[in-house]
Amino acid sequence: MKQKTRGLTERMDARAWFDVFVVLTALILYAVAWPTLHLTHAVSPGAQPFIAALAAFPILLVRVNPALGWAISAGSALLIALAIPHQPNNDLPFQVVQVIVLIALLFAVGLRAPMQIVAVAWGATSLLFGATMPGEGEAFANAAWGWPIALAAVVLFALLVRWLVLSRRELVRQEEENELERARRAILEEKARIARDLHDVVAHHMSLVVVQAQTAPYRVEGVTPAARAEFESIGATAREALNEIRGMLGVLRSDGQLPEHAPQPKAEDVLTLFDGAKRAGVTIDWTVEGELGSVPETTGLALYRIAQESLSNASRHAPGAPVRVEIVCGMQLHLRVVNGPGATPARPIGNGGHGIAGMRARALAVGGEVTADASPDGGFEVRARLPLGPAQAEAAEVVAPPTVP
Predict the structure, then answer these.
(1) Which candidate, 183, 74, 50, places its Cα nearest to that of 128?
(2) CATH of the domain at 211
(3) Which of 168, 171, 347, 374 is 20–30 Å from 241 (CA)?
(4) What does the record give as the reaction this protein catalyses (predicted)?
(5) Mean confidence (pLDDT) of the chain
(6) In this structure, are residues 69 and 59 in contact, taking their beta carbons and an 8 Å threshold?
């Protein structure tokens, strides 16, 4: 039995406890009003329970409908004051219990009811108390002015509590909205990370397929017209697939992307990238000065993606052109990718790409910068400067950045 009682009390919330308190208060007020009613008013014994109930029980509506409870209490108070004579030794028109209930309900109206109802309840209660309370001459004038002022203080205090509660609820609501916004932003950032990796990986290899198909007739001897047409078909299909991939990725990409921290390619993996481009038919040579193994992971990832995107751009816009890559790892990490004019005319692969913007975003994420511009000979040049951490900078061999004519 004790365990059941303990479980019930644990499950009860604040509203349930408040309802219990209101019921107990109503019973206590009723227990006071009924036995004392004959001392204040000339009421028959049979009517006393009903008159006492009108005085005490309207407080039961304090949470459910305080305006209705106030109306019942005020109406019964006026009825008692006008219709039931009070005892000679009692000057109050109705019981003290009814005064307490009326003030409590007026306070509840100020907490929950619309402002129009609050104003009506305050005015009607002030008029009821001011007109029915005993007093003559100056005493009556004091009562007529004193009750409205006292009841106004009650209403103002209720409104103050009401505004504080509403402000607290608004603050909680704002915090919930901020939490939802943070979750939504995290989802968008994850989409942006996926979009960036898809663009860097898929677009790079698709571009190499296009380049291989487009330059095969010039690299391979004895290509028949049928084989040339087949290569043209492969290139066209790959370009179409690349355009569709970019269209889908455009939905996922967004501004303000954050750097990734998942396992990704490192700085030394650029050598594998260069080997793969060379096997794909790109005329590429590279030089590396310094130790790439000491480059931090985030900087190494940015280096890899920028080099990857630079090779993809060179393959797309200058097919067949030689590409020169220079990497210097000193106090800072410098990357230079230069390609000459294309040996064959470049074919359009769509518009609205994200290559250069993505490279700049990656460099900015690690505190570096990227510049990309056309070279005087008709080619293109990409320069990247990526800072290294203090420990890596001290461990790396200090060399000057490559000079570019």
Answers:
(1) 74
(2) 3.30.565.10
(3) 374
(4) ATP + protein L-histidine = ADP + protein N-phospho-L-histidine
(5) 78
(6) yes
Q: How confident is the model at residue 252 (pLDDT cuts 50, 70, 90)?
A: low
Last residue of a domain, one of 87, 104, 134: 134
Cβ contacts of 369 within 8 Å, gap of 6 or more? 360, 363, 384, 385
Which residue type occupies 188? L
Helix (H, G, I), strand (E, B) or coil at 9: helix
User: Where residue 384 falls among pLDDT bands split at 50, 70, 90?
Assistant: very high
d(CA 215, CA 232): 10
Cβ–Cβ < 8 Å for 94, 81: yes
How, if at all, do strands 284-289 and 323-329 pair?
Answer: parallel
Distance CA(267)–CA(307), nearest Å, equals 10
367 lies in a domain? Answer: yes
Predicted confidence band at 302 (pLDDT cuts at 50, 70, 90)?
confident
Question: Is residue 159 domain-resident?
Answer: no
Q: Say if residue 399's pLDDT is above 50.
A: no
**What letter does residue 347 receive in the DSSP assignment?**
P
257 and 354 fall within a common domain: yes
> What's the sign of the alpha-carbon dihedral 340, 343, 345, 351?
negative
* Beta strands per DSSP E along 194-351: 284-289, 323-329, 332-339
Q: What is the DSSP letter of 346?
A: P
Residue 232's Cα: distance from chain center in Å?
A: 49
- 50 three-class SS: helix
Instruction: Specify the DSSP element, H or E, that contains 128.
Output: helix 115-132
**pLDDT on residue 260:** 44
Domain that holds residue 277: 193-395
Dihedral sign, Cα of residue 212, residue 321, residue 277, residue 308 = negative
Domain count, the chain: 2
187-223 b/e (C-beta count within 10 Å ≥ 16 → b): eeeebbbebbebbbeebbbbbbbbbbbbbbbeeeeee
- The answer to whether the beta carbons of residues 331 and 291 sit under 8 Å apart is no
- pLDDT value of residue 326: 93
Three-state SS at 393: helix
**AA identity, residue 11:** R
Tell me the C-alpha distance between 356 and 309, whole Å. 8
- Length reported for the chain: 405
